[in-house]
Amino acid sequence: MQPVFVILGATAVGKTDLSLDLAELIDGEIINADSMQLYRGMDIGTAKLPIEQRRGIPHHMLDVLAVTEMANVSDYQIAGRKVIQDIHDRGKRAIVVGGSGLFIQSLLEDLQFPPGDAQVRARLEQECEELGLATLYKRLMDFDPEAGAKVNPANARRVIRALEVIEVTGQAPVTSLQALPEVVPSIRVGLRRERPELDQRISQRIDLMWKQGLVAEVTHLASQGLRDGVTARKALGYAQVLAALDGEYPMTEAPERTMIATRQFARRQDSWFGRDSAIIWRDANSLTADDVAGLQA
């Protein structure tokens, strides 16, 4: 199998334009690796590229979930690998693009998932609603402090998944942040910008989101069950607008809160990707598609 090109990096760093240029250059097709772009209707807040701006290049793993469904890494791994194989079977090149580190790792490496149980998960989700996330996280820490320390206490999906694995298997999930054996050969290219520049790009993106109608988009999705979506409702921008709609603070504060949360998220992305020694880091201001294509030589 020819290696898959991977264009990764923090939000707003400039992955999209480079991936389009590369796809045109090498006859490639793009596979989304942004967990929130999996959702139908979540377009403005995820900076999902409109169809008319995709230059006729096929894009995969977009708009595959309803906002009420959970973005599951295991399901993504299975579906994404099938897409990669299909692209290569047609003589094209696969280009994975996104900033969701675990989703990218699941595609490329031998990341295996313990069994789950939909009924247990549904009950835990209900308990999270009724008792609060802090209560569930304490339950996880009480069972295995080491495993709990590896889970972000603010990430409901991860906390619920850890407790689900504990109930199904009797053991805490093994969370390895180290590189695993590669299943899909890849050329991983990471984009970087100086922090002040990236922060400015994030601010500009959020300004554009509001001008494009993010509040109206969230309002519509709320009528479609967004508040019931364990993962979708936590998305940057969407969570802040929902909170404002629910009266937690004025809507005028939502853009600033979104900007702060997005900048914090970009730093967490950098931290995640910084552990991957296979990534070839380049300056986003100067890297071209020809440069990326040349890395396969």
TrEMBL record:
Q: Give the source lineage, highest ranks first.
A: unclassified sequences, metagenomes, ecological metagenomes
What's the cofactor?
Answer: Mg(2+)
- Name the SUPFAM superfamilies on file: P-loop containing nucleoside triphosphate hydrolases
* Protein keywords: ATP-binding, Magnesium, Nucleotide-binding, Transferase, tRNA processing
Ranges annotated as spanning the membrane = none
Protein name per the record: tRNA dimethylallyltransferase
Organism per entry? freshwater metagenome
Q: What family, per the record?
A: Belongs to the IPP transferase family.
Under HAMAP family, the record lists: IPP_trans
The keyword Magnesium belongs to this UniProt entry's keyword annotation? yes
